[in-house]
Amino acid sequence: MKPSNLLRQYPSALMAWRNLGRNRIRTGLAALGIVIGVVAIATIGMAGAALQQQATSSLGDLANEVTVSPGEDSDTAGITDDQVEEMRRIAGEATVIPQKSNSTVITARNGQEVRVTVTAVTNADAMYNVSEGQSPERLRSGALISENTAERLGLEMGDPVEYNGNLYRIIGFIGADSGGFGGFGGRELVLPMSALSGQEYYGSITIMASSGDDAETLANNIDAQFNREVRGEEEEILSVQSFASVQEQLRSFFTALRLGLLGIGGISLLVASVAILNVMLMSTIERRGEIGVLRAVGVRRREVLRMILAEAALLGVFGGLAGAVLSLIIGFVLFDVLIGDGLLVFQWISSRYLLYGFVFAVFASVLSGVYPAWKAANDRPVESLRA
């Protein structure tokens, strides 16, 4: 169905449609300004949503983790067994994973050497995701090694790795998306706790909570249990860190960033509104005589007002729709590049900016048409016919 047929039920809108069609180049240029404004607003909003989603995905399960390490005022060189047991009591159902760490140099058959972080842990499956092989619930023998290190040294599953005079067979490759940052650019060797039995204390504790809120509560409870204020100064026996607050700060940062960028995008739409105001003024001046004839044959002021406003609204509707479609295509490409799934652009957190851009476009267009419409409706018919 043609738009003109659809608008026959609304005479003012039909006349507005025909008036816009008289000078298609001028109408197209005015609509192009609206398209650019909508694309600026919607694309910036969706880009911010994609970046926030990508950053949140990179943090992954870290938001649910609490990391505990020896504090500045600790009397020991690490975390004791008694402190670990106390943390298990506080943690309740959360998983407490003690770790010891060191570093070493692994030598490949071809003589190439790579320095790696050595981590001794028991609950390997809770800490590491493997791209190949297995990550056992209780690591008693064998070794896990980061896949980039294995690839660099040409190591394969079942190959032996020597540490402190003992050989450990590789049973799994740690994936690049596994939790933990590791040292030396993510190059890490994971061994059973017995490999670092010479160390009396644990170097760090990781606590895996069920949610970010639980992790934040656990961090506060552990901090209150072990660190107290002594003589007006905070005594730090254990250093407690939770990444839940980092995620919240990240969310706040991206919200502020999006609002700032949307403001910049809104300026372009305001510039487009000024262009529409100019187009509508030129149009009403050129049709002054025609409007005078309409008024002389009995057309009321409000009908003239409605017709001019309908022209402005149609510019906003069609420009907004074209801008929304173009923004959707750009957003699909952005999500596909940044996150790897372009269909995520249809989530409300990103698609809502299409609606915001469209509504803003229609509102700005109608607002731009108010003065030309008021001026045309209040022109005396006699003076209009003399023009």
Keywords:
387 residues, alpha+beta, ten-stranded mixed beta sheet, two-stranded antiparallel ribbon
Tell me the number of helical segments per DSSP (H or I, 4 or more residues long).
12
- The low-pLDDT segments are none
Mean of residue pLDDT values: 82
Order of helices and strands: HHHEHEEHEEHEEEEHEEEHHHHH
Give a brief description:
Strands 1, 2, 3, 4, 5, 6, 7, 8, 9 and 12 form a 10-stranded mixed beta sheet that branches. A two-stranded antiparallel ribbon has the order 10-11.
Please specify the SSE layout and strand pairing.
Blueprint: H1 3-6, H2 11-22, H3 24-59, E1 65-70, H4 81-91, E2 95-107, E3 113-120, H5 124-127, E4 130-133, E5 143-146, H6 147-153, E6 160-163, E7 166-174, E8 188-191, E9 204-208, H7 212-226, E10 228-230, E11 233-235, E12 238-242, H8 244-286, H9 288-296, H10 301-338, H11 348-377, H12 381-386
Parallel strand pairs: 3-8, 5-7
Antiparallel strand pairs: 1-9, 1-12, 2-3, 2-9, 4-7, 5-8, 6-7, 10-11
Helix pairs in contact: 2-10, 3-8, 3-10, 3-11, 8-11, 10-11
Explain this structure:
With 387 residues, the protein is α+β, with helices and mostly antiparallel strands. Helix 3 (24-59) runs antiparallel to helix 8, helix 3 runs parallel beside helix 10 (301-338) and helix 10 packs antiparallel against helix 11 (348-377). The strands form 2 sheets. Strands 1, 2, 3, 4, 5, 6, 7, 8, 9 and 12 form a 10-stranded mixed beta sheet that branches. Strands 10-11 form a two-stranded antiparallel ribbon. The protein is built from 12 helices and 12 strands. The model has no long low-confidence stretch (mean pLDDT 82). The chain has helices at residues 3-6, 11-22, 24-59, 81-91, 124-127, 147-153, 212-226, 244-286, 288-296, 301-338, 348-377, 381-386, and strands at residues 65-70, 95-107, 113-120, 130-133, 143-146, 160-163, 166-174, 188-191, 204-208, 228-230, 233-235, 238-242. The chain starts with a helix and ends with a helix. The longest helix is centred in the last third of the chain and has 43 residues, at 244-286.
